[in-house]
UniProtKB/TrEMBL annotation:
Domain Radical SAM core: 9-246
Keyword Metal-binding appears in the UniProt entry: yes
Any one Pfam family match given in the protein's UniProt record, by short name: Radical_SAM
GO molecular function, one term: catalytic activity
Protein name as catalogued: Radical SAM protein
Cofactor(s) the protein requires to work: [4Fe-4S] cluster
UniProt keyword list: Iron, Iron-sulfur, Metal-binding, S-adenosyl-L-methionine
Length: 288
C-alpha cells in the first residue's frame, strides 16, 4: 500500500483497510483542524487507487471493511466511485462494508439516485463532520456550511439508505457558547436523526488558527466539568430514534455509549455520577 502523508480514519474504522482516494481535504479551512494542513488537495488517479486495492489483496487474506480516505472522498465523480466499489466487490468478495468521509457539500452535489446507486454497489456508511449546530460557531470555525445545509445533506444521506455517522465536538464554542452549542447541536441531530452520533472533545492542535486564538486569549477552553455539563445539556435535548451515540474517543473525559433515546436516562446518570468526582471539578472546588 502507498500512503501519502498522515492518514486519518473514524474510530470505528480502526480495523479497516484504508485506501486513499483523495489526498487532503478540498475545504481545508476549519480553524480547529490540522489534519490535512500539509497537503494540497487532489483526487488520486483512478489507476493508482485500483492498483493499491490490488496490492492489498495480495497482502491481506481477509478484509471485512474498507475505508476510502482522505478528507472527502465522496467528492469523486460517481462513475469513478462506482468503478472503485465494483472493483472492491470483485477482488474482496468477503468485504462487508465500505465507508467514506463525506462533506455536506459532497452529499448535496450528488443526486439522490447517485447515492442510491452507490449504496447498491456497496457504499455502506458515510461520515460527515457537523462539529456544531450553532450558526455563530460554524461561522467562527469557517466550516463553510451553515446549519440548514448540514440538515439538508443529512436528510439526503438518510433518504439514500446509506448509513450516516456524524461527529460533533464538545467545547468548540468555548465558554461563551456552552448552552448554544449544546442546544443547537441537539436540534440539528433531531432533524437529521443520523444512525450514529460521535461526540469528541476539542483537542488543541498547535498548527491551527484556533490554537493561536487560544494563545492570544481570544478563545477559552472548557474545564472537564464544563465539557460534561455541555454534553449533558446536549443529550437532554436530543429526541431521536435508534441513534447510536458514542462519546468514547481518547479525547473524551468519560466514556459514554448507548442507543438514543432508549439509553438517555442511563447516559445522563453516568454524567451526573462523573460530575460528583473531584477530578472534574474546577481546581478551587476540589475536595469540597
Ligand atoms: S474538519 Fe473536515 S472539512 Fe474541516 S478542514 Fe478538517 S477535514 Fe476538512
Amino acid at each position: 500500500m502507498r500512503y501519502e502523508g498522515r492518514v486519518f480514519r473514524p474510530p470505528s474504522e480502526a480495523r479497516s483497510l484504508i485506501v486513499q482516494a483523495t489526498i487532503g481535504c478540498a475545504h481545508n479551512k476549519c480553524t480547529f483542524c490540522s489534519m490535512y494542513k500539509e497537503k494540497k488537495f487532489r483526487i488520486r488517479k483512478l489507476d493508482d487507487i485500483l492498483e493499491d486495492l490490488n496490492s492489498a489483496r495480495e497482502y491481506y487474506k481477509n478484509i471485512k471493511r474498507i475505508f476510502l480516505a482522505d478528507g472527502d472522498a465522496l467528492i469523486l465523480k460517481t462513475e469513478d466511485l462506482l468503478i472503485i466499489l465494483q472493483h472492491i466487490k470483485r477482488i474482496f468478495p468477503e468485504c462487508e462494508r465500505i465507508g467514506i468521509y463525506a462533506t455536506p457539500k459532497d452529499i448535496l452535489n450528488k443526486s439522490l439516485n447517485d447515492l442510491k446507486v452507490l449504496k447498491d454497489n456497496g457504499l455502506g456508511i458515510m461520515y460527515m463532520g457537523i462539529e456544531s449546530g450553532n450558526e455563530d460557531i460554524l461561522n467562527k470555525i469557517t466550516k463553510g456550511v451553515d446549519r440548514k445545509t448540514m440538515i439538508k445533506a443529512g436528510e439526503k444521506a438518510k433518504e439514500s439508505g446509506i448509513k450516516l455517522s456524524v461527529t460533533l465536538i464538545s467545547g468548540l464554542g468555548g465558554k461563551d457558547y456552552i448552552k448554544e452549542h449544546a442546544m443547537d447541536s441537539a436540534k440539528v441531530i433531531n432533524e437529521i436523526n443520523p444512525d450514529y452520533v460521535g461526540l469528541l472533545t476539542l483537542m488543541m492542535e498547535e498548527d491551527t488558527e484556533l490554537y493561536n486564538d487560544y494563545i492570544e486569549g481570544n478563545f477559552e477552553l472548557l474545564s472537564p466539568e464544563e465539557v460534561m455539563i455541555e454534553t449533558k445539556l446536549f443529550i437532554e435535548n436530543l429526541n431521536v430514534k435508534n441513534c447510536v451515540f458514542r462519546s468514547n474517543h481518547a479525547s473524551n473525559y468519560i466514556s459514554l455509549k448507548g442507543t438514543l433515546n432508549d439509553d438517555k436516562d442511563r447516559l445522563l446518570n453516568e454524567i451526573d455520577e462523573a460530575l460528583k468526582e473531584d477530578i472534574y471539578k474546577p481546581e478551587g472546588l476540589r475536595g469540597l
